[in-house]
Amino acid sequence: MADTGASAAMVYELAPDAPVLRLMALSGLPPPVLAPWRRIALAAPIPVAVAARRQCLVWAAGHQQLARDFPRTAVALPYDFALGAAPLDDGSGCRGAAVLLWPAGHAPELSPAERAAFAGACRRLAALLPVGRSPDGPLVVPRPPARITGPDEARAAVDFVERLPGGGCALDLEGRITMLSTGATELLGAGPAQLLGARPWEALPWLGGPVFEDRCRAAVLSRRPASFTACRPPEQWLTFRLFPDGRGVSVWFGAADEEQDPAARWPAETLPVRATQMYHVLHLAAALTETVGVQDVTDLFAEQIVPAFGAQAMLMYAAEAGRLRTVGQRGYPPEAVEAFEGIPLSAAQSPAVRALATGEPSFFNSLEETERQFPGLGKLTGMAARAVLPLIVSGRPVGCCILAYRHPRTFTPEERQVLTSLAGLMAQALDRAFLYDAKQQLAHELQAGLLPRGLPPVKGLSVAARYLPSTRGMDIGGDFYDLIRLDEHQVAAVIGDVQGHNAAAAALMGQARTAVHAYATAGAAPDEVLARTNRLLADLDPDLFTSCLYVHLDLRTHLAWLASAGHPPPVLRHPDGRADVLRVPPGMLLGVATGTRYTATTVALPPGAVLALYTDGLVERPGADLDDGVAALAADLTAAGPVDLDGVANVLLTRRGIHAERLDDVALLLLSPTADGRGDDG
Questions:
Q1: Which pLDDT value is given to residue 132?
Q2: The model's pTM
Q3: Are 587 and 599 in contact (CB under 8 A)?
Q4: Which of 145, 342, 419, 544 is deepest in the core (most CB within 10 A)?
Q5: DSSP structure class, residue 568
Q6: Do β-strands 490-498 and 546-554 pair in parallel, antiparallel, or remain unpaired?
Q7: Could you give the 3-state DSSP secondary structure of residue 11?
Q8: Is 617 in contact with 665 (CB distance < 8 Å)?
Q9: What is the SS3 assignment for 410?
Q10: Phi and psi for 88 in degrees, rounded to 5?
């Protein structure tokens, strides 16, 4: 620390029995701050783990860069400081990593002298790491004490403090009071016995909010003075000023300005945003883990962050093909959104373009400030102040988010840090959401390509079909159906379900549907259609199984031949409204064994009857028996009444509750012969 001018240091050891970094020693920081990072997975996306994993120096010159490159770390430590992390290598491989912190305001890069000192220290530290069992906890290395040569100088230091107006106290790095002036006890209303060794925010209820603790931690990490105002009951306002160094924090406090309006002594601008808005930030971070698509991310941001920061409008862009595309907005007039839609990333008239080009957020406190840099923007949008946050992942622009305000607003340093941290989280969430949406689009296109675009109209037969994908996973599955015209009076219907909800299931579904169609049009009997399809799928050896129900209908004789390969039984509603479950021999699933034989069953299907073919997603419920679900479907089919088949299909889907969350795909195919020879393809 002395050689590099660093204000704090940590040394981590790579555990011998797991890919984990363990905190071995620290100095210049209170140990509780590092409690979440006592053990760090080597694969974690935080600076020290990246340095050890990649065997390179990791550098962040300030909070903005930390938020851009390591948003998780920046959200947990929303304070301004510079950070460097480097591996410890003793020549035999990585032994761990060291982290140094510098006060806020460090140069953008390490100087050659700092870099050389850091590298040399890492080599020496690697050799000093113990071999074998390590201590149970980290070694805390104190900074050298202040220079006091004897009792006379100590007495003079005490007298100096006592002569100052107001009160003063000293805190160690963990916030415990180590020294207290007489004036301090009078102003705080408590004596040394209550205060010495205690933390002010724990010993004094009126300081129990997060303000004092947050300001103290901010001062220690950034090595910058901090201040705040608090009220000691009933109405005594005190101003606290904190002055940190590597050994602790000196605190001076006194009566607040009597001329100042008490309501303004703790204005909203000077409230620590970490005590109010950081709740929303952390809530957003947790909520983002549950979002999947771009719309989910933008809605969550609009609902959580816009109100938390008092903004009146939000605009979120995606950077695509060298242009900006709007993916979400709240509160902006349509003409303002349209004016910047699709502008190239090379344009100069947009703050979003500039933020993406520089990678740095921009904050405009007033309409005048906005107009100076972007003439006409304020009048077009109707907004006076705005925060423009670039969304960048691994140096790659993902998009840009703008929070806007109708009235002037000053963005405090704390707010800027929190918003910058938010931008890092949003960038990663939005990047994942773009990937998810792209997969969803591919899934829909694949599913649409494998299912029939429409069913052929068949004279003398009414048909209705529905398909609904699972609401979980890739939104793609293996349920399929088809209607195959065999000749003028004969038609085949098929419904099936391939195991799984992924691209492999969809691909096998396409192969099974094509095979059934080919064997059916070749004139094979129902049992033979399934036997041949089974042999084909078994030869393909897809490691997935398929259930299938095949129906051959003769519209002159009104007879149907049914063969099943492990598929749920069809339900037949008779012309008089009664509904029965047809117990067709189930047979073996397709693709299990090549020599499997299947049996066909003949049933009468007179005009006005309705034959319902379906997949198990329509009748299965967690914890419920499948037979009960099939019986309920039969009851629903009876209750649907004498409406057209489309109406029957809608009634069945509604009564079965499939419009809520679906754990499985749902396919439904309804067939009904007509007496007058009419038909449709609903």
A1: 60
A2: 0.52
A3: yes
A4: 419
A5: P
A6: antiparallel
A7: strand
A8: yes
A9: coil
A10: -105, 110
DSSP state of 406: S
- CA–CA gap between residue 682 and residue 679 (Å, rounded): 9
With a CB cutoff of 8 Å and minimum separation 6, the contacts of 320 are none
CA contacts within 13 A on the Cβ side of 513: 23
The Cα 139–Cα 133 span in angstroms is 14
Q: What are phi and psi of 270, to 5 degrees?
A: -100, 0
How many Å apart are CA 45 and CA 24, to the nearest integer?
Answer: 20
Asked if residues 493 and 551 have their Cβ atoms less than 8 Å apart, the reply is yes
Peptide bond into 234 cis (omega under 30): yes
Residue 669 burial (C-beta neighbours within 10 Å; 0-12, 13-18, 19+): buried
E strand spans, 259-337: 313-320, 323-330
What is the phi/psi pair of residue 199, to 5°?
-90, 135
Q: From CA 582, how far away is CA 563, in angstroms rounded? A: 11
Rounded to 10 degrees, what is the CA torsion of 467, 470, 476, 481?
-30
> Measuring CA to CA, which residue among 572, 526, 528 is closest to residue 549?
526
Partnered with residue 89 across adjacent β-strands are 94
Sequence-separated contacts (24+) of 103-111 with Cβ below 8 Å = 103/7, 103/222, 103/223, 103/224, 104/62, 104/79, 104/80, 104/222, 104/223, 104/224, 105/224, 106/61, 106/62, 106/82, 107/61, 108/61, 109/59, 109/61, 110/59, 110/84
Give the CA dihedral 299, 304, 305, 311, nearest 10 degrees: 90
Q: What is the mean pLDDT of residues 462-477?
A: 74
Residue partners of 461: CB distance under 8 A and separation at least 6: 491, 553, 555, 671, 672, 673, 674, 679
C-alpha 333/C-alpha 157 separation (Å) is: 63
- For the record, the structure tokens of 30 come out as 């209170």
d(CA 336, CA 357): 21
Q: Are 52 and 94 in contact (CB under 8 A)?
A: yes
Name the average pLDDT for the chain: 84
Q: What is the Cα–Cα distance from 650 to 355, expressed in whole angstroms?
A: 50
- Name the CA radius of gyration of the chain, rounded: 35
On the CB side of 646, CA atoms within 13 Å amount to 4
**Is 175:242 a contact under the CB 8 Å cutoff?**
no
Which pLDDT score is estimated for 267?
Answer: 36
Residue range 324-337, pLDDT digits in tens: 899 999 888 888 88
Q: What are phi and psi of 551, to 5 degrees?
A: -125, 130
387: left (phi over 0), alpha (psi -120 to 50) or beta: beta
Measure the CA dihedral 629/634/635/641, to 10°: 140
Helices and strands (H, E) in the chain, number of each type? 20, 27
3-class DSSP assignment, residue 49: helix
Q: Tokens for 522?
A: 């070749």
pLDDT band at 472 (very low <50, low <70, confident <90, very high): low
Residue type (1 letter), 576: D
Q: Which of 510, 490, 484, 488 is nearest to 498 (CA)?
A: 510
Reported as a single tens digit per residue, the pLDDT across 140-167 is: 777 666 665 667 777 887 888 888 889 9
Distance CA 371, CA 380 (A): 11
Helix %, strand %, coil % of the chain (to 5): 35, 25, 35
Count CA within 13 A, CB hemisphere, residue 341: 12
Q: Residue 296: what pLDDT?
A: 85
Q: Phi/psi zone of residue 523: left (φ > 0), alpha (ψ -120 to 50 degrees), beta? A: left
